[in-house]
Design brief:
This protein has two domains: 2-154, Rossmann fold, CATH 3.40.50; 192-316, Beta Barrel (Elongation Factor Tu (Ef-tu), domain 3). The chain is 32% helix and 27% strand. The chain is built from ten helices and 16 strands. The strands form four sheets. The chain has a six-stranded parallel beta sheet with strand order 1-4-3-2-5-8, with helices on both faces. Helix 5 crosses helix 6 (136-146) and helix 7 runs antiparallel to helix 8 (182-189). The two termini are 30 Å apart.
């Protein structure tokens, strides 16, 4: 997959591409439906499927106090866009000159002049240009002169575990994760939610309890609700079941939030490595135990639950619960 950084980097390889523009945070099922539609259109003429996205999120500049935490850090977003069918990704640096472009100027100067797309594929709520004044109707009005066609893709709807029907969106996924509902979040994403970050030195508490953990710094990525989760860890080329704790270590007098994972049946010096923690199921709340011994006993129960979940998934042939 080709990566283009900035408008000036766009070359003739993208001419006539099937293009979709958006933030794509999470690359959820709605995004994937758009990319599948783009792929089907591109296949007819052997065109490239191009996703144009913005870094940072425009709202971080326009309304920084409302800037949401990210579901997918940049490298994870690239990985998921490629999995969803993108042949190329254009990363536009979000700055005031870009945000000041009218919808018409954005289409004419950025999309048509630089790419000359054959199709632009978007969801019905797509908005763009200064003040988000442009929408899919704007694209349709500009399409004859711009030489492209517009395809509007219906949102992805599904039923959550409580029976509610929702339209899949990045906002909805964030709300589910904030409540610790990683199962329904996975249904919206089409895969388990994954925390991605750098392994850092921790306080060594897990080792003293008999369960050495990796501690993860995930930067500005969204961290789900505090609790203990069954999941899987990917680090330094290995993948293994993991018991993941998100919390402040109340039994040990902690105050700052920590993301820790005990990787079952594996060990290593993984400091400074990039690790990925997939979260399958929330096992329990965080709580303060009577002391380290009681906490260690509970961790053993948690680890056994994780092992049983992993074994059941393996027997069923599923990649995860």
């Amino acid at each position: 997959m080709r990566i283009y950084r900035g408008i000036s980097s766009i070359d003739d390889h993208l001419r006539g591409a099937v293009l979709t523009v958006g933030n794509f945070d999470g690359v959820h099922l709605g995004h994937q439906r758009i990319l599948r539609t783009a792929h089907a259109l591109a296949k007819v003429s052997s065109a490239a499927v191009v996703a144009m996205t913005f870094e940072p999120h425009p709202i971080s500049i326009l309304r920084p106090e409302r800037d949401p935490p990210r579901l997918t850090p940049w490298d994870e977003k690239l990985h998921q866009l490629e999995r969803a069918g993108a042949d190329a990704v254009i990363r536009l640096a979000t700055d005031w000159p870009l945000l000041s472009l009218s919808a018409e100027d954005f289409v004419r100067e950025v999309l048509v002049k630089r790419i000359h797309p054959s199709y632009i594929v978007e969801g019905p709520n797509f908005a763009f240009g200064r003040g988000r004044a442009g929408d899919v109707r704007t694209l349709e009005q500009l399409s004859p002169k711009g030489g492209f066609q517009v395809r509007i893709v219906e949102p992805y709807r599904l039923h959550l575990s409580d029976g509610r029907q929702i339209v899949v969106s990045s906002t909805q996924v964030r709300a589910l994760l904030a409540a610790g509902n990683v199962v329904d979040a996975a249904h919206c994403l089409g895969r388990p939610y994954a925390l991605v970050g750098t392994v850092i030195h921790g306080a060594g508490a897990g080792r003293r309890l008999g369960f050495p953990t990796i501690n993860l710094d995930v930067g500005k990525q969204l961290v789900p609700a505090e609790g203990v989760y069954a999941g899987a860890a990917e680090v330094a080329g290995l993948r293994a079941p993991a018991a993941v704790s998100i919390g402040t270590r109340p039994t040990l007098g902690g105050t700052s939030l920590a993301i820790e994972a005990f990787v079952l049946d594996e060990s290593g010096d993984w400091y400074a490595e990039t690790a990925r923690l997939e979260l399958f199921r929330r096992l329990r709340d965080q709580r303060k135990f009577d002391g380290p011994q009681a906490l260690s006993a509970q961790i053993a129960v948690d680890v056994q639950q994780v092992r049983e979940i992993a074994e059941a998934a393996q027997k069923s042939g599923e990649p995860c619960p």
